[in-house]
User: Which sequence fits this backbone?
């Protein structure tokens, strides 16, 4: 018998492992190239992760989800769940495997003619569970998502956030170890989004469910994902701990994304206005919770004896951790300014903002 993977290399087996996964769709017309929706993607998702997959529309995120739950076959590559390559399973085994993966959707996909409780019961009914047992399970889940008092209501009587909470209860009905959330908060307002994200964090924390969050909303990732992969044109262009990808993006695509969520960087127009108001050279100084503080940055500049102003910025919270971004205007002769800026020391990144 072959050794389990954990024994071979002392590295715990990833919960979900994608290796060189490609998905091509045939060309819409003869003579055209096929669409490569997912292009040689490799990813490892550990048990208990809240793993974000982010990318602009058309990047291949939804296709990736359909591959992970075997709704569509991959063109190439392997997708292992707990060491089993699901791309090689029979259709019957794939169906069985799919009961271990809960799904929630942007449009909630509730059945309008069924009560909330009977929506949650639905997957259990399909699986052949007895009436009393599935009723008990549905009520327990509705209690968990904070909707015990809505069991008899119908979906249209609920707010969007409440409907998504029913969707989450239904997705958890079969006690799946994995939950896939495809744009689950994209149809919700910011307040309701927070409510649903808090619930997903509780599902992860209290039930130990591994959650894969697909979204184009960077804020969602900043709030709940511990790890993130950034997709662009079918490829994963960067993957890592969310805090590190946000504070130190390594690719141009990730940098562009991060800028959509980080509030403390002036946009082009704001920068033009700031330059009209403030003399001197502009620098953006960024620091993480492992580096400097605002006080240290200002202290160093004051000690260097240059004249400076904070023109923009502040401190953001990413995954509950500090990320500072300060844009300053510094006046003085070139050498003095360079020396002052370099005296801020380690733990900060200083970038001159050129006009
Ligand atoms: N069934 C299909 N047949 C042909 N092309 C498809 C199919 N599904 C997706 N595509 C193409 O694959 C690419 C990736 O699409 P996908 O929906 O996975 O991206 P996405 O990142 O989820 O974007 P969105 O957020 O807009 O859904 C796109 O170019 C899309 O047109």
Assistant:
């Amino acid at each position: 018998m072959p050794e389990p993977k954990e024994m071979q290399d002392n590295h715990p087996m990833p919960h979900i492992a994608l290796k060189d996964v490609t998905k091509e769709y045939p060309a819409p017309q003869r003579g055209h190239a096929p669409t490569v929706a997912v292009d040689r993607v490799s990813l490892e998702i550990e048990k208990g992760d809240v793993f974000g997959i982010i990318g602009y529309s058309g990047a291949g995120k939804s296709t990736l989800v359909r591959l992970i739950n075997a709704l569509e076959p991959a063109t190439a590559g392997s997708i292992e769940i707990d060491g089993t390559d699901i791309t090689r399973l029979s259709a019957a085994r794939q169906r069985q495997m799919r009961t271990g993966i809960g799904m929630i959707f942007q449009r909630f996909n509730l059945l309008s003619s069924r009560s909330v409780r009977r929506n949650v019961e639905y997957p259990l009914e399909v699986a052949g569970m007895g009436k009393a047992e599935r009723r008990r399970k549905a009520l327990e889940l509705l209690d968990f998502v904070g909707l015990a008092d809505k069991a008899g209501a119908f979906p249209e009587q609920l707010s969007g956030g409440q409907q998504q909470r029913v969707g989450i209860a239904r997705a958890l009905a079969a006690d799946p170890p994995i939950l896939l959330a495809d744009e689950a908060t994209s149809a919700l307002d910011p307040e309701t989004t927070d409510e649903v994200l808090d619930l997903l964090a509780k599902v992860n924390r209290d039930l130990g469910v591994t959650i894969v969050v697909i979204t184009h909303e960077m804020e969602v990732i900043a709030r709940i994902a511990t790890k993130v992969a950034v997709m662009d044109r079918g490829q994963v262009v960067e993957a890592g701990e969310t805090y590190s990808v946000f504070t130190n993006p390594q690719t141009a695509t990730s940098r562009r994304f991060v800028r959509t969520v980080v509030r403390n960087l002036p946009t082009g127009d704001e920068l033009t206005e700031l330059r009209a108001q403030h003399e001197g050279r502009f620098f953006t100084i960024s620091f993480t919770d492992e580096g400097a503080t605002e006080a240290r940055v200002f202290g160093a500049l004051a000690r260097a004896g240059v004249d400076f102003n904070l023109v923009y910025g502040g401190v953001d919270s990413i995954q509950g951790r500090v990320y500072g971004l300060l844009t300053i205007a510094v006046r003085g002769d070139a050498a003095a300014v360079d020396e002052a800026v370099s005296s801020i020391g380690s733990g900060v990144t200083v970038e001159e903002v050129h006009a």
In short: The pocket of adenosine-5'-triphosphate is lined by residues 25, 35, 37, 55, 57-63, 216 (CB under 6 Å). Residues 1-8 have pLDDT under 50 and may be disordered. The first helix runs from residue 5 to 9. Residues 102 and 171 are 4 Å apart (CA to CA).
